[in-house]
Batch of 2 targets.
Target 1
Amino acid sequence: MTITPSLFEAYLKCPTKCFLRWLGETSAGNECADFDRDQQASYETEGIKRLTQTLATNACVAGDSIALTGKSAKWRVAIGPVARAGDLESTIEAIEQVPAESQGKQGQLIPIRFIRTNTLTRDDRMLVAFDAFVLSEMLDAPANLPRSSTGTRTRHSS
């Protein structure tokens, strides 16, 4: 079975919930959770819109077929690429490419998550770390994991 961010998030909240999802059990539905999920999706859409408005049209690419290599590409931000490594898979909301500071060094690919709350929780940080880990495993490169809550590339409202 493939480990995805939603399965990992379920584990962070409750290992039993994760196990049941892994078995394929479905929940009866929760209006509050559905509302929260819709609000998060809306915030993510708005965040991507704000992020891409400031970039030149050729600096932003979208889709899961984006060539994610550690080498310098022509894009600055990738929207919605899928990173796969072994049993791990993550559809990353956005990836920022930071060019190398000097020639001969490799640039960095930094995953971005859009979080609608004003405070980043431990789970939010763990999900960003999961995205970074899957990306690093796919590229066979060291992960650029956030060191602190102020150093994360997680977007949240002001």
Note: Residues 5-156 form one domain.
Target 2
Amino acid sequence: MFIQTEETPNPATLKFLPGQVILKSGSMDFRTVEDAADAPLAKRLFTLQGVRSVFFGGDFVSVTKEDDTDWVMLKSMVLASLMEHLSMGMPIVNDNALDQNKDDGENDSEIVQQIKELLETRVRPAVAMDGGDIVFDRFEDGIVFLQMQGACAGCPSSTATLKVGIENMLKHFIPEVEEVRPVDYF
């Protein structure tokens, strides 16, 4: 097994591409070892000293390091853990974790449905290329609240992405949108 790595716009985050499916749909963000209780691969990565958070996309894993950790040592440890876990066919996430990750959106207003559709088709594919995700949190009083995940969480360019890119696009297509704000769970 050969695992490629890519730098992301966030210098604290590396994207690991193992050449196989990690999640069949959506994404999962693990900010603590407790968050990873139903995700054996994420739990394993948290055992490595210096891992701050783990993010799963469709075909990649993003790992964010602690500020006082150097990628020189951590990168090889992450690669070894990923290679061992995946080559042994161990589960990436447990089934109940996948069930908790679903949002059917059946009670969403028309505006929220439009916002989610634009995020899904125009924003998420681009940020996934950078090792992260942007997830809809809520819409209230003209303000769209989005959660930055993976490489996007804490990225120096995330404010520009939100304000210049996403906010302008949403305002253009949905007049009811007045502003976009991040929701930070760290």
Note: The longest strand covers residues 132-140.
